[in-house]
Please model this.
Amino acid sequence: MLAGMFLFALNDAMGKWLVASYGVGQVLLIRSLAALIVLAPFVWAFGPRRLFSLERPWLQALRVAFSTVEVFCFYLAVRDLPLADVMTWWLASPIYVAALSPLLLGERVGLWRWGAVIVGFLGVIIALGPSGAVSPVATTAAIVGTMCFALMMITGRSLRGTPDTALVFWQLIGAGVAGAIAAPIGWAPPKALDWVLLGLLGVVAMTAHLSVNRALKLADATLIAPLQYTLLIWAMILGYLFFGDVPRPTMLLGALLIVGSGLALSLYPRRAPVVGP
Model:
């Protein structure tokens, strides 16, 4: 789990570096193709025909739509905002899931969980406070992206019978198609080193997903979920080393409230989902 969180942070840092020079669509397209190459052996073992005979196809399509918008918004947000800021908002997604689960999943949310949700939303508001360089587009993308990520997790919880290979495959297909549509806008021929980074972007993301899935099979989710917040530590370190980002005091305070709320939700008997952009 710790390795997976580091790889996710590394993937996000590389993505931030690349979208500074290339369009979001171009990055998504090449990233998805590279990840599909890594996933190919798992798809072959799973059985390609089984990818087209999944439960509740309409819900599968809805999940892919949410995941596609989420990853597109992530790269739009991280292009103009500090890496740690963006990761702080994405780590708030379990809070949105807890708030929406009574309405969309019919789950009961007790007083303790509602208290944690309120504290978490307060942390989001504080973390969204103005910084030295406010970007309305990036901030809007971050808000929309985190909501789509939460909705993706909720729909995923309704598709527990679908194997991980199928979920990841269609998620990559959705992102790849969106990337192919948007790629011609501002396409720039990648440099030799950037071709390597664009390819590694998909490989690192796939390895991170595999690490997290393996961790969840080896230990209970209530023990593993709190480790997801090490992602924020890595985001701060990599953001400072590669981009010179220094976390704002308001962001740190908001992050503290979000992490505290998320830990309360994940350690409560009802399990909170584990994230992974």
